[in-house]
Amino acid sequence: MSSKVYVTGIGIISAIGNNVAETLDSFNKMHSGVGTLEHIISRHQADTPVAEVKASNAELAVMAGFPKGHEDTRTALLGTIAAKEAVKSAGITDMKEFRTGIISATSVGGMGMTENLWMQYLDTEQSGPWLKFIESHECGDSTEAIADSLGIRDYLSTISTACSSSANSIMFGARMIKQGLLDRVVVGGVDSLSKFTINGFSTLMILSKEQCKPFDANRKGLNLGEGAGFIVIESEKAAKGKTIFCELTGYGNANDAYHQTASSPDGAGAYLAMEKAFNISGLKPADIDYINAHGTGTEINDLSEGTALDRMFDKKVPMISSTKAFTGHTLGACGGIEAVFSILAIKNNMVYPNLNLVTPMPELSFKPVTELKKDQKINNVLSNSFGFGGNTSALIFSRVKE
Amino acid sequence: MDELIDKLKGEIIEQLNLEDLKKEDIDNDGPLFGEGLGLDSIDALELIVLLEKNYGIKVANPADGKKIFQSVRTMAQYIQDNKK
Amino acid sequence: MAAPNYITAYAKIRSGKVILNGETGYSANADEPAADFVKAAYKHYELNYPKFYKMDQLCRLAFVCSELLLRANKVTANYATEDIAIIVANNAASLEIDTEHQSTIADADNYFPSPAVFVYTLPNILIGEIAIRNSIKGENTFFIFDTFDPRFMNSYIHSMLNTGRAKCCIAGWVDFYENKYDAFLYTVEQTNNGLGIAHTEEQLNNLYK
Lengths: 402, 84, 209
Fold this sequence. Notes:
The complex is a heterotrimer.
Chain A: E1 6-14, H1 20-28, E2 50-51, H2 57-63, H3 74-89, E3 100-105, H4 111-122, H5 139-150, E4 155-159, H6 165-178, E5 184-191, H7 195-203, E6 224-225, E7 227-234, H8 236-239, E8 246-255, H9 268-281, E9 290-292, H10 299-312, E10 319-321, H11 324-327, H12 334-348, E11 380-386, E12 391-398
Parallel strand pairs in A: 2-6, 3-4, 3-5, 9-10, 9-11
Antiparallel strand pairs in A: 1-7, 1-8, 5-7, 8-12, 11-12
Chain B: H1 2-15, H2 41-55, H3 65-68, H4 72-82
Chain C: E1 6-14, E2 17-20, E3 23-27, H1 34-44, H2 57-72, E4 84-90, H3 95-106, H4 115-118, H5 125-134, E5 140-144, H6 150-162, E6 168-177, E7 180-189, E8 197-198, H7 201-208
Parallel strand pairs in C: 4-5, 4-6
Antiparallel strand pairs in C: 1-2, 1-7, 1-8, 2-3, 6-7
């Protein structure tokens, strides 16, 4: 049993960088990763901006350290790159030293590969090397690929709860540590862009034709993105003597019970998730220094989340921003990616800008931060992630008291 | 117009999987959303697909749906005015 | 010593049979197409929820199973909606409807992807449907496993109830792909209501079989 859950490693890949250092550089330069789709042929290429990782699958395979000729799905590649960085940053060299697990999250899994090979799969007259990828479709496949490349054997699990998936994998990992089932866990998630999601979100008419503007009165929808974010969390015993980024002090999950895709007007689920996270952490809303919002840039999410925040914080909302205008909405990966941002905010005492904000929403009491802020004192960060199916999650990261 | 309204009712029932409903259950002027047939935002998007698929009419802004889909009659009127 | 918990009701739908707390209810030929059977069961039990027809096959199966389970044990009457959790797993995720969505975007000359199809391309939407129907707002997670894993479910739900994250849990397995279907949902509570079967890995295994 461990009463505390420490973050000892972080790894990330997204449209704003292939690792932590590049990511920070993009923030410093206020450089958004949203641009034109390059690696998928789509009818939406010209009119729908996306936040794509700036590398081909072949280049990603090299970064992931896969042997030459080894092919895998973009999802497995992105996940492996970020998870490896996290394990390296945690200084883990021997997987056998402690009971180590991996809990990954994804919403589309190997869809990108499936849709390219779809017509070949359906042609039962033919067979060929592509058939080995049929199994890579399912959501658990990328987790297995990541676990294999890291040499993790003790525990493996995959969560799929839409856009809150990786926040839930972090929460689940923390509980396993607290109950003494594992000593350390690689937690987070990954999703890659696919025609499947681009066309699907397009039918919901919530894809912006320009860069997304979270929390702007004239927001026009979201930009899809891709990437992976993983963190290493450890028990007090396993983390002893190590460099610790911060502590995961709070987490909560609830259901909005309103609509399959639309958040409730009052953000009931979001409020409940945050309330649970506060209860577990023992912190009060006034203790939070920065909120990394879910803030997708859709009309409904930002109003629902903002309304819940105004209620939770009694209209005294601290510094807040959505980083979706940098990374796009990375779906099942966003909870992991934004956990890394939250941890870096504490480590570097910085707050990221909410890009593209011109007119704050009149319905809300707060105005998100629009510039990169340094030399802040950031001790506690709240990170929200909400998904279709009404699944709402909140995480709280806290500086370890000296 | 009446012919179009009748045809449209059949198409709405099919497109929105309203299996329990018959054409005569849908009032020409009754509200489609909220109190009326109880349709939701996804149904509104689905009706936009119906307009494009069956009538070649593109609705670019989902907010326009509110006016167009007030009732079967307003929807039929919109089709008549915009059909190429 | 951790508190014992109890399986207080369960419902199964598979091979053309509805089984409620161990008793066979509505049944049809085992070779009846899955979609037809689930719809017939919905009608047989007069579940009366027009939104049923808008759901994909996975959600329809989960919906019928959950309705029957909650008829047998109306937990929403006994607990605050925030205290009821929903934890479900399956193997095929949402593959059944994923292929339908894929087929509407694969053909450039007949490109009419449906928003109503796309919204179901996530397995946890079935939890959302149960939550919406019953206004259940507690913790909810969807796992992907090879097969129903009584060991995992047992320990996960024990810890959830014993650490106060929920007071009651609707849990189980709902899988639907290519005419194969398997639903098993059950309620777990801290008090010895209803069936009062001890919540153990072994009992879950027995009930699932």
